[in-house]
Amino acid sequence: MVLVIFSSYYYSHHFSLLFLTSSYFQTIVTQINHAIGAEGVLSTECREVVTQYGDQIWELLIAGIQPDQVCSTIGLCLFNGPRDAGDIEMVVEKQNKKASSFGEDVLCAACEMAVVWARTELRRNQTKEIVFKYINELCERIPSPMGESVIDCNSIASLPDVSFTIGNKTFVLKPEQYILKTGEGALAVCISGFIAFDLPPPRGPIWILGDVFMGVYHTIFDYGNLQVGFAESI
């Protein structure tokens, strides 16, 4: 079981969200996702691109195919005309602006980043093995566009419960309650319900108990008395 204890909290003026504040809350999400084996969306897809398409990417770059056409050539991106694929920040920024970042969009973004890195290392006359070892290392450091982390759908049954202790009372979330599954079969994607985001002061850092928690526990906001109540949903 993963245990999260809130020793102090206060209530937001916005009834739709419960804000819990403490300087260490931003790190807890990372620790929870590590405990349940969740990984950043783009990190996972980046490694998949290197494993499955690395050889093709290498051969296309060696053959002189323009970098902005490589990912569309191997079927991971739709080609919408020439563009500059030389700026890795452009690739990440484009992905950050999308509300949904899964499926083909994620594979495309991961491919574009891998191509940028591979081309840069090719210009330095690095060997194929060194280039893809370096790219795999970079994959580990890619932040998810919206803070999402994915997990193997087949592992849900073996995941631990996550407990929140609020006001000396324990509220438990089971794996099927905190893992969000979309799609079926080979297209299924399972997303951790714990998402990190960076909200600078004075509003942050904060912890939001959102749909994952409120879907399991009925929540009543008593703004007049500055208190909130939880009860298990029926």
Automatic annotation (TrEMBL):
Keywords: Aspartyl protease, Disulfide bond, Glycoprotein, Hydrolase, Protease, Zymogen. One of its GO terms (biological process) is lipid metabolic process. InterPro entries: Aspartic_peptidase_A1, PEPTIDASE_A1, Peptidase_aspartic_dom_sf, SapB_2, Saposin-like, SaposinB_dom. It comes from the Eukaryota. The keyword Nucleotide-binding does not apply. Residues 41-81, 104-145 form the Saposin B-type domain. Disulfide bonds join C153-C190. Pfam families: Asp, SapB_2. One of its GO terms (molecular function) is aspartic-type endopeptidase activity. The keyword Disulfide bond applies. Signal peptide: none annotated. Residues 1-231 form the Peptidase A1 domain. Belongs to the peptidase A1 family. This is Aspartic proteinase. It comes from Thalictrum thalictroides (Rue-anemone).
